[in-house]
Specification:
The chain contains four helices and five strands. The chain has 151 residues and is of the alpha+beta class. α2 packs antiparallel against α3. The protein is globular and about 40 Å long.
Length: 151
């Protein structure tokens, strides 16, 4: 397997694209050796779903597309980025948000932290931003043993 792998897809900022982004990510992760039912795969799909939803709902028509980037670096870190062209960055909300929406970033931060990862936001040259999640690559980790011991 290569030392560094990348995959990317650009989709229209449309609600139907959220499911397309999830499918794309699941397919790429599977090609890279992460089984579809693996805990990390489930977390990454949920993270992508939340980030893609944000890119569709919170860009107010100013970002006609969004891009999902996947990077696997030295079989150690998986980096997932969702880029849109809207200049507004996500708000950092408290964990105890008492509303029906706006909890996507809270969920994303929690999933990243639970997996030993981190979240960052970087500006793009075009005036938008990319929300990045970096997660340890867990292919080959003894998930069955963790499940059996209740950890």
């Amino acid at each position: 397997m290569a030392d560094h792998q990348e995959a990317s897809v650009t989709l229209p900022s449309d609600p139907a694209s959220v499911a397309a982004a999830r499918r794309y990510v699941a397919d790429v992760l599977s090609e890279w050796g992460l089984p579809e039912g693996a805990e990390t795969a489930d977390s990454v799909r949920l993270i992508v779903s939340e980030l893609a939803t944000n890119a569709v709902q919170h860009t107010f028509g100013q970002s006609p597309t969004f891009t999902v980037d996947l990077r696997l670096e030295r079989q150690e870190w998986l980096r997932v980025g969702v880029t849109d062209s809207h200049p507004r960055w996500p708000k950092r909300l408290p964990a105890a948000v008492q509303q029906d929406n706006g909890r996507g970033m809270v969920i994303i931060r929690w999933l990243a932290a639970e997996a030993g990862g981190r979240l960052s936001v970087t500006p793009t040259e075009e005036g938008g931003k990319t929300v990045w999640i970096a997660l340890p690559w867990a292919v080959g980790a003894p998930t069955a043993a963790r499940s059996a011991t209740g950890c």
